[in-house]
Design brief:
The protein is α/β, with parallel strands linked by helices and about 270 residues long. It is about 25% helix and about 25% strand. The strands form three sheets. An eight-stranded mixed β-sheet has the order 6-7-8-5-9-10-4-11, with helices on both faces. Strands 1-2-3 form a three-stranded antiparallel β-sheet, with no helix packed on it. Strands 12-13 form a two-stranded antiparallel ribbon. Strand 9, helix 4 and strand 10 form a beta-alpha-beta unit. Helix 2 packs across helix 3. It starts with a strand and ends with a helix.
Length: about 270
């Protein structure tokens, strides 16, 4: 049974038990981000721009591109990380479940870490995907990272995480799962992340803009607002995810807010 179909311009998650299909059509930014082979990829933009959806879609697309190495199957293990357990459960996990909660056969384990295991078919054979959801409420929670062996890591709202989280994950994904002893064929492993824009004193700005570390890449999303000829804010029809937002989403969001708020959360600056 085929559970998901990957096309160049869309992904179809086939519904089961009379549930309708779900279709993801990436924006131009989304296409570039999902197809990126950079070691660390960060997508940044305003509120409502579909950043987290791009990231969860990339996880599934990435594992479909893995070589067959386990009983003729493709297999991957990912960590999905958020700064607090509350936000991990209410936001990050919900985004994943909204798209892929019923993908193929799956099971959930609560201990030692919240883990979802999926087995599904994309028409080219069986794929096995293990997802480990991690919250970093306290600085000592970083210890959760140090024993993991991963194919990839998704750092949700990177701007709210300390810089050492990215540093530790770089050592957990670089060819750790699967290792060359199990699969000698080349395949991507690395880190993806999303964030609203931080200040220019934030460590993200230093790492991605000032130092321009090799293997790091930022994908900048279009602004949600534009100025009209009279200098008034109007919705940008070319904004990512605009077709899934109310036409006045950004103009209402900007009303009564400070200039800094509008720059970060409406314009993505």
């Amino acid at each position: 049974m085929k559970h998901i179909t990957f096309h160049e311009g869309r992904t179809i998650i086939h519904g089961q038990n009379n549930i309708a299909d779900k279709v993801f059509i990436p924006s131009e930014t989304g296409k570039q981000f999902i197809d990126s082979d950079d070691f660390v990829s960060l997508v940044m933009g305003p509120y409502g721009s579909g950043k987290s959806t791009m990231c969860v879609q990339r996880i599934v697309r990435s594992v479909s591109r893995m070589p067959c190495w386990f009983n003729g199957r493709r297999k991957a293990r990912w960590a999905i990380v958020r700064n607090t357990s509350g936000e991990l459960q209410s936001t990050t996990l919900q985004t994943w479940l909204q798209w892929f909660g019923e993908l193929g056969d799956w099971r959930r384990r609560q201990k030692p870490l919240l883990t979802y295991e999926y087995m599904f078919n994309d028409g080219h054979g069986i794929i096995e995907l293990e997802l480990i959801f991690i919250a970093l409420d306290r600085p000592e929670d970083v210890r959760k990272i140090k024993s993991l062996e991963l194919t990839g890591a998704y750092l949700n709202e990177l701007g709210e995480l300390p810089s050492n989280v990215l540093s530790h994950f770089k050592g957990r994904v670089n060819g750790r799962y699967t290792s060359r002893s199990f699969c000698s064929e080349p395949h991507w492993s690395g880190i993806i992340a999303d964030s609203n824009y931080p200040s220019d004193s934030h460590w993200i700005f230093d790492a991605f803009e000032t130092q321009q570390i090799p293997g790091y890449r930022i994908f900048h999303q279009p602004p949600g607002l534009l100025r009209d000829d009279d200098g008034q804010w109007i919705a940008n029809p070319g904004a990512d995810n605009a077709q899934h937002l109310s036409p006045d989403y950004y103009t209402k969001l900007a009303a009564g807010q400070t200039e800094d708020f509008v720059k970060v959360y409406c314009l993505g600056q």
